[in-house]
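REQUEST FORM: STRUCTURE PREDICTION
Request ID: SP-0412
Submitted by: Lab K.M.
Chain count: 1
Length (residues): 265
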Amino acid sequence: MNGDTSNVTNVEDVEAAEEAAAFARPPIGAVIPIRNPDDEPFVFRFEVGPAILVQLLEKLRQLEGRPLADCLAASYPGFYQLFLDGRPVYIGKTSRPIGVRLGEHIKTIRGRIPHHRVGCRFAYVEDPSLVDMAEQALIRFFESFGEADWNRSGFGSKTTGYGRAGTRGANWDTDFPPDFGWPVEAGSVRPMTLAQLIRMINCNAPITFTIPTKLYGAFSAAHATSLNVVGATLPFRQWATFIERQLAAGWKIERQARSWYVVPS
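STATUS: Completed
RESULT:
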């Protein structure tokens, strides 16, 4: 070594240039946009979402609507469309069996809209990755024709758990408030705990009516005595009043928009 570092500097420059060039190169298979105005007339851009949309719309148009309750056996993922009195109001997708998601919608409309007013048609999708690609294109399309009113209303939102931040969209709840006079069958010829009775009422209530999971142990300990509640069909509000009267000191029903929780007071 004679102290001349010019070669080292040149090597470092070359390595730095090669590294920069490597970062500048797009990965294999990546889309390289063509931005030259002169070439623009010859560019074909394949947009997956709109392409799927065209084919899916044609498929949906070939299908007849059926009562929502008749679609619960749909056993594959895909898209579905809901109708209220024959008018399209919601477009949805799910990566689970469609019937599972429709069952959740059945619970949402229970005690708010008679089931016979809500119709459905659906299409299975064999490649689940395509479902998410086309979702927004579908919503935008149906919204442009006023056929997706429920998509932005909070209808499809899931119930926010007790104690969690966030609220559900209020528009749908305002348009279709729960009927607290909704008939609910509950009770048994056998003794049951208050927690068991609440679970039974929740199965047919017009809103979520439950004990938060994290409080279930404390509630059961405070309400260990069995009750004799003969089976009966009563308005939901009447059952709620009965439950309130059975609560031990320090417990209450906290009423929220779509969920009533039995919690410490």
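NOTES: The chain has a mean pLDDT of 85.
Reviewed by: T.R.
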